Amino acid sequence: MVNYTEQDLLRTIGKIESLHACAQVLAKAFEILNDPDSNQIDLVDTIKTDSSLTSDIMRISNSAYYGGALEISSLEDAIHRLGFREVMKLISISMSRQIFNKTLEHYGISALDYWMENAAVAATMENFADLLDEDRSYFFTLGLLHSIGRLVIDQTLSDRDSTLVWDGSKPSEEWEVENFGFDFTDSGHVLLTSWNFPQRILSVILNQLTPERVNNPTNSLMALNYSIRWCKEHRQFRSEECGDPEVEEWMSEHEVTQQDLMELQEKSTKSFQDLRKLAGV
Fold it and tell me: Whose CB has fewer CB within 10 Å in the chain, the N or C terminal residue?
């Protein structure tokens, strides 16, 4: 095993500048969302720093999904009609189109499959937020970014001219630790930290696979862990037979029933299809 360090990751991150602007906008948007003194103008000014993001939001805002009967002609109009948090979702979607538009050579995962994996978890998380009465845009973004660390590992291996390729015989995180020294949750944490994402996102990304190690884990962490496992088991909504979902202990504390989970899965399947249309995938 070659020893890789955080400095190796940071050098790789420095090369992913094409993603940087949009990622910084999303991180800043979360700051604005959590600042009681912020307003619509602050968000508009932040989005406008990225012209491609601005264009993408306007395009999606005027799509058939959002009605399309009355043309949205400005960012201010989009926020007014769609709402602050829905625009946050559009930023996440636009960002995902940039980030996941790359085949992961060392994982043998196509760009489309990489996007689909993250989008499926995002769709499930969004509906979990409704079920648990949580912030939809926050849950959605966690789902969309949960495996972003793979991008960093793949690029770092390419920079070292490595011939390593994950063969799928074991979970990817085990393969990463054996050959890289740490897994995609660690590299994702380093990447999003460098992009100034808020701590409540960083901590969930870092602990998504091992919530049992966290004292008093948040609903967002438990929901993400469940969503990842469910989407993997059912091949990102491509499995015809899903079976009856199991209510876990943490869900019972929120009075979530098996019927709730069955409805969640049905809604998430539709949300996933809607998300594909919004992203043009």
Answer: N
